[in-house]
Write a structure and sequence with these properties.
Blueprint (H helix, E strand, L loop, with lengths): L22 E3 L7 E5 L3 E4 L4 H14 L2 E4 L10 H14 L7 E7 L6 H10 L2 E6 L15 H4 L1 H10 L3 E3 L13 H16 L5 E3 L5 H9 L5 E5 L1 H5 L23 H12 L5 E3 L8 H4 L14 H11 L6 H13 L7 E5 L3 E2 L4 E3 L2 E3 L7 E2 L2 E4 L2
Parallel strand pairs: 3-4, 4-5, 5-6, 6-7, 7-8, 8-9, 9-10
Antiparallel strand pairs: 1-2, 2-11, 11-16, 12-15, 13-14
Helix pairs in contact: 3-5
């Protein structure tokens, strides 16, 4: 078992924050607290219907804002649909919540450049999501030919300063699933950045050393990446240890240990090009534990605890706040949050599941004990 699959080690050394690092505060009976600017989640799936109502409070409790993914059934392809979905989210929020959903559009071969203008004028749509057709959950309506069919839309996105969020995998079934991110970078993403250097691009849920190197080779402020807790903590062994582990199955799939280490190094050394994006993706237990289980890991309730674990183990707690709270809004050109959240060094046990009307959802690290617990501050 690799070191980072263990529960957090006791007695880890605390590194005092720098000017913009987390500020330690004293609380009676608690070993250590960190005060952080309230984080945002720059990659979140909230689904709809009963599932939306079951999961939205977990994100709203910890995060100030979140970029909401548009891969519903049917997908959110228009500004009008994004506005309607936003209203559904707001209605499902707990009373007095100030959580702000930042909406996205689902890019298709047939999207019009005028839709990008409408999206910018709406004030509620903040990005467009590229799903290569067939790459992941509900991506069957995604793009089949980015340069041949979507170039006018991409050019309008440059004019409107609208970021493109990329699920970075090719979908050719002849390509090994563990090589699909690298090939996407080489054949699509690198040519795209060269062709449209003013287009802001976020490579979502990076999983490889190749992705880290690509992002770091690009101009800061033009290309960035979100990083999930699972790709920081787990490698592909986690899919099979103790039997097949369906709740560790996500897309892009977990990779080799060398890639996990590269991602940890990128985020914990303080690069401004990487920021928090959970890719929290709830599915009912029955659809995860079936012969053809869904891809996606539900991490919203535990994400901040897990990110803190990663930074503590790397001796980089002073870099945590920038990753969780500063780099994302700075890239999007949005103000940083002004409220605070507390991370306490206090053990808590992750529930085995969360029940809702139609079934139950199993969270990441279900049943395990974590050592950092987030809470709001008065």
């Amino acid at each position: 078992m690799i070191k980072t699959l263990n529960l957090p080690c006791k007695g880890s050394k605390f590194f005092l924050g720098k000017a913009e690092g987390p500020r330690p505060i004293k609380t009676k009976g608690v070993k250590m607290d960190l005060s952080l600017t309230r984080p945002d989640d720059w990659h979140l799936h909230l689904r709809d219907g009963d599932l939306l109502g079951a999961v939205v409070s977990h994100s709203a409790h910890h995060f100030g804002r979140a970029i909401i993914m548009p891969n519903l059934k049917p997908p959110v392809m228009t500004t009008a649909a994004a506005v309607a979905y936003r209203e559904s989210i707001l209605k499902a929020l707990p009373e007095n919540s100030d959580f702000t959903p930042l909406m996205t559009l689902y890019l298709t071969d047939h999207m019009s450049p005028n839709e990008i203008k409408l999206a910018r004028r709406s004030g509620v749509v903040f990005a467009v999501k590229l799903y290569p057709a067939g790459a992941t959950t509900n991506s069957q309506d995604g793009v089949t030919d980015l340069f041949g069919k979507c170039l006018p839309v991409l050019e309008e996105m440059v004019e409107q300063n609208m970021p493109l969020l990329v699920h970075g995998e090719v979908t050719d079934p002849e390509v090994d699933i563990f090589d699909r991110e690298k090939l996407f970078i080489d054949t699509i993403l690198r040519p795209l950045v060269q062709k449209l250097p003013r287009l802001k691009v976020v490579m979502e849920h990076v999983t490889t050393l190749d992705a880290v190197r690509f992002v770091e080779s690009c101009i800061e402020g033009s290309v960035a990446a979100t990083v999930t807790p699972q790709h920081l903590l787990l490698n592909r062994n986690s899919l099979f240890q103790g039997g097949l582990q369906p709740h560790n199955y996500c897309l892009p799939v977990l990779k080799r240990e060398i890639h996990r280490q590269a991602i940890v190094s990128a985020v914990t050394r303080g690069s401004k090009q990487f920021f928090l994006g959970t890719d929290s993706a709830p599915h009912e237990r029955r659809w995860k534990e079936c012969p053809c289980g869904c891809a996606g890991i539900y991490s919203s309730p535990v994400a901040l605890s897990l990110y803190a674990m990663v930074f503590e183990q790397a001796g980089a707690l002073d870099k945590l706040e920038a990753f969780t709270s500063f780099n994302g809004p700075d890239f999007y050109g949005l103000p940083r949050n002004t409220s605070k959240i507390r991370l306490s060094k206090a053990q808590w046990r992750v529930p085995e599941s969360y029940a809702f009307e139609s079934g139950e959802i199993v969270p990441m690290f279900a049943g395990q004990t974590l050592e950092w617990r987030p809470s709001t501050m008065d």
